[in-house]
Structure prediction request, 140 residues.
Amino acid sequence: MTTDCIIQEIKQVGNKATETIETYEQKVNKLLDKINSYKRAFENIIELILKINNDIGNVVCNQPDSAIIISLSRETIHKLRILLGKAKGHPLYSGYKATLHELSGAVDDFEEHVSDFKFRHDEAAQAEVNDLFRNFSLSL
Prediction:
């Protein structure tokens, strides 16, 4: 074997290594772009949920409007739970796990706010609570 052959083999390996590095970097960059894209989407949803939670916090409105709000909220919570399930099963899950955890917490808070909102607009439940406290006094 001549030194020229060895030099050629070394160059081939070097070229293949360079090509592999470039391909690997491209793939990693694509994965990171996807992870960042998912994170941004989840962060946008979190911001929207937090805004709704603030808006719905102390609102009392008429029965038809409250029924629409509750119905839409239930549908949205259902969709968000599906999204969370799919995201947890995604191969890139570990890259946006923390953001997904924040989203899960925001959805839980949203569900709680909707539950409170529903109670505030349930006339029968309000009447029952009012009856319970009608003759109640804390004076000694």
